[in-house]
Design goal:
This protein is an alpha+beta fold. It is built from two helices and eight strands, in the order ααββββββββ. It has one domain: Quinohemoprotein amine dehydrogenase alpha subunit, domain 2 (Lipocalin, Beta Barrel), CATH 2.40.128.
Length: about 140
C-alpha cells in the first residue's frame, strides 16, 4: 500500500512539473511586454525600436523615433493601455516641432504574436507592423 501511494505521489509530481514548464499561450497572447522591431511605412519603410512593459492593462515603454538628422534617434516615453487585443499608447517628443511632437500609436496583437496599427505624429499618419524580438521578462520564449 505504501509503495502505491509513493508511485501516485511521484506521478502527480511529474505531471505538475511538466504542466509548469508549458508556456502559457493565453497569458503571452494577452501581454505586449518585450522588445519590438517596428516597420513604419512612410515614403519608405523606417525601422523603429520599441520596448514595452505591461502591468495589468497599463502599458509603459519607449520608442526610438528617427529624427530629421540621418542616423539619429529620439527616445520618447510612452504610456497607455492594452485590453482585448487592442493597444493604445501616446507620448510627447521633447524639443520636436508642434507639428510632430505628439505621438499616438494604436494597434492590435495578432494570434501569431505580431502587431500592426497606425502611428500618428501631429498631422502625419503611417501604418506599422511589429515583431517581438525578445520575450517579456519572466515569460516563456517565443516559438
Amino acid at each position: 500500500m505504501a509503495k502505491r501511494i509513493g508511485i501516485i505521489i511521484a506521478a502527480l509530481a511529474l505531471a505538475t512539473s511538466a504542466a509548469a514548464q508549458q508556456p502559457n499561450k493565453k497569458t503571452d497572447a494577452q501581454n505586449v511586454s518585450g522588445v519590438w522591431q517596428m516597420s513604419v511605412e512612410a515614403d519608405h519603410v523606417l525601422p523603429v525600436g520599441m520596448e514595452l512593459k505591461q502591468d495589468g492593462e497599463n502599458v509603459t515603454g519607449t520608442i526610438l523615433m528617427p529624427t530629421e538628422h540621418i542616423g539619429q534617434r529620439r527616445e520618447i516615453a510612452l504610456e497607455g493601455h492594452f485590453a482585448d487585443g487592442a493597444l493604445k499608447l501616446s507620448g510627447t517628443a521633447e524639443g520636436a516641432s508642434e507639428d510632430s511632437a505628439k505621438i499616438d500609436i494604436t494597434g492590435t496583437l495578432a494570434k501569431d504574436g505580431t502587431m500592426s496599427g497606425t502611428l500618428s505624429a501631429g498631422k502625419h499618419r503611417a501604418h506599422w507592423t511589429a515583431e517581438r524580438l525578445a520575450p517579456r521578462r519572466g515569460g516563456a520564449p517565443r516559438e
